[in-house]
Design a protein that fits this description.
Number of strands: 4
Strand order of the largest sheet: 1-2-3-4
Radius of gyration: 15 Å
Shape: globular
Order of helices and strands: EHEHHEEH
Strand content: 15-25%
Largest sheet: 4 strands, antiparallel
Structural class: alpha+beta
Number of helices: 4
């Protein structure tokens, strides 16, 4: 266990556009072991739709486990609302992919391939 706590704040304005400039999600950063595990998931995606779907589900659970919280602007009310782990499955896939790219650097499992 580390003697310190770190989180990575990922801005969502570029993915969501106007009105979302202050939106963000916060994650625990990936460790080297995490990056290796994520690469293993990406490499195991296989050729079948079933294999790709299973890999996408594993990747989503992996990143959800690293999720700490965030804020997203509700377009109906204009208010920023808290995002929790319970909301994670309802996030648009482009947001999940953006977060995966930001967290993983060179490791880039694209969940839209499932």
């Amino acid at each position: 266990m580390a003697r310190f706590t770190l989180t990575k704040k990922i801005s969502l304005g570029s993915e969501l556009g106007e009105g979302h400039e202050n939106d963000y999600l916060r994650f625990e950063p990936l460790t080297f072991k995490d990056a290796t595990d994520l690469q293993t998931i990406a490499n195991a995606s296989g050729d079948s739709d079933k294999d790709r779907l299973a890999a996408a589900e594993q990747a989503q659970e992996f990143i959800k486990a690293k999720f700490v919280g965030g804020k997203i602007t509700d377009e109906d009310s204009g208010n920023q609302i808290d995002v929790t782990k319970d909301d994670f499955a309802d996030l648009p896939i482009n947001i999940v992919n953006h977060c995966m790219r930001e967290l993983s650097g060179a490791v880039n499992p694209d969940l839209t391939q499932a």
